[in-house]
């Protein structure tokens, strides 16, 4: 995708929204982007796209070396539809496969491979240059954009998150993914220093967005 500001004068603004699976962060991040007139990037979709590409190649996702090799050969690009960025991999649009069972099962092991994180973090950083983006993920405030002042950690107790995911008709093992994501050696899920933590168990989407906007206002942004 072409840089939206060839003159290079458009500021790079990143609002980082991190948190565990099914904390509600995607819905919140997208609503926030829409409210601010920003674009929305779900970095998890890039990790899911890379996992899908590995599976398509027949790579054993537990084989760290094979995953790293496949990631090194993949061509990752970012498309845009409305306010949403989405991944393209080797020219393919994998969106309809991103929540396939095999992707759900393998995405956390693939995401724990340092080469995968290095490649996707670099792609996300490059893409965000000169843009105003709400980016959600696991390590956006802690590792990808540690310099952004706008960092939020969206959380909810495990029972609430399990229930939400069941309500969405997906029986993912979110506790297994959370365990892998928060204990991996490279860029684990963690609360970034300076992040505002919001527990969503008693708040609806608008309530969480309002809390974020209030904090951004204090910081002089919204
Ligand atoms: O939607 P949900 O919160 O369940 O997950 P997701 O955002 O689609 O992310 C899927 C997986 O990608 C996570 O469980 C992590 O293993 C990985 N991920 C990551 O490692 N780093 C990110 N910045 C985003 C996602």
Give descriptors for this structure.
222 residues, alpha/beta, single chain, 7 strands, 5-stranded parallel sheet
Describe this structure in words.
It is built from nine helices and seven strands, in the order βαβααββααβαβααβα. It is of the alpha/beta class. It starts with 12 loop residues before the first strand and ends with a helix. It has helices spanning 25-36, 43-56, 64-73, 101-111, 114-128, 140-144, 158-167, 174-183, 205-218; strands at 13-18, 39-42, 76-81, 84-89, 132-137, 151-155, 196-199. α1 packs across α9. The chain binds cytidine-5'-diphosphate. Cytidine-5'-diphosphate binds next to α2, α4 and α8. Cytidine-5'-diphosphate (CDP) binds next to α2, α4 and α8.
Topology, please?
Layout: E1 13-18, H1 25-36, E2 39-42, H2 43-56, H3 64-73, E3 76-81, E4 84-89, H4 101-111, H5 114-128, E5 132-137, H6 140-144, E6 151-155, H7 158-167, H8 174-183, E7 196-199, H9 205-218
Parallel strand pairs: 1-5, 1-6, 2-5, 6-7
Antiparallel strand pairs: 3-4
The structure holds cytidine-5'-diphosphate (CDP).
